[in-house]
């Protein structure tokens, strides 16, 4: 069984338990009480390379990364460092995240929040909105094409923006065909969990002009932000190096400064 299939098995089991506990109607009611979702797209399209900073405690590839007892405080540091959005991993079994983390981060920051999880049903989209997310991740490799298309449509109808994640050329084509307006190219192979830093360079040109390009995974510091920007990234998503590195606010500020580097001035936006 592939790593993704193993993760999805756990996700389905946790999801079934939550669906048993919390009826969809309750989520819809909670979602209706949230302020309208924030629009991340103009922030991602702004000049230079924008930074999405991730709250990430553990990962299947590395195990425990950081003991994040106060995800809201970490998110505030990210926001004050200049992150345009915060990604919150809500998967429990492999990433040690939760919807409580999402709710806590929502209450603490003003920037848009991405629910980073393995979303396979519209129930999870309602959960995302009910807990204050503005953006939901959809992973092409985890979804049949019909399901991808209908989850994008459902997310939009709920007010969520979608970040559609691809790992291969075929998945980028599927994301484009499905109508994705923000595509994340993830450098981490879902079978081996190895990060191949050339992935974005190889696949970015397959994303049509006008669609936002985000480089995900394996960003270690400012130098990577500049390189990915030169390859056409509008934004980068960074987790591990921020939660394991130096003080998060200044670490994000260093990435933000790199994203505004003069070498990126002549990129077409
Ligand atoms: O991080 C993992 O090990 C992982 C394994 C299997 C599926 C997804 C995984 N990570 C989710 C992410 O996409 C990353 O958390 C995100 O891109 C940030 O990556 P990084 O900066 O390398 O932590």
UniProtKB/TrEMBL annotation:
> Can you tell which superkingdom this protein's organism belongs to?
Bacteria
Write the signal peptide boundaries: none
- What Enzyme Commission number(s) does the record list for this chain? 4.1.1.48
The pathway is: Amino-acid biosynthesis; L-tryptophan biosynthesis; L-tryptophan from chorismate: step 4/5
Q: Which GO terms describe its biological process?
A: L-tryptophan biosynthetic process
Q: Which reaction does it catalyse?
A: 1-(2-carboxyphenylamino)-1-deoxy-D-ribulose 5-phosphate + H(+) = (1S,2R)-1-C-(indol-3-yl)glycerol 3-phosphate + CO2 + H2O
| A molecular function GO annotation | indole-3-glycerol-phosphate synthase activity
List each coiled-coil range: none
Q: Which Pfam families match?
A: IGPS
KW NADP (keyword) present: no
Q: What InterPro entries does UniProt report for this protein, alphabetically? A: Aldolase_TIM, Indole-3-glycerol_P_synth, Indole-3-glycerol_P_synth_dom, Indole-3-GlycerolPSynthase_CS, RibuloseP-bd_barrel
What range(s) does the Indole-3-glycerol phosphate synthase domain occupy?
Answer: 4-255
UniProt keywords (A-Z) are: Amino-acid biosynthesis, Aromatic amino acid biosynthesis, Decarboxylase, Lyase, Tryptophan biosynthesis
Question: Belongs to which family?
Answer: Belongs to the TrpC family.
Q: What is this protein called?
A: Indole-3-glycerol phosphate synthase
Supply the gene name: trpC
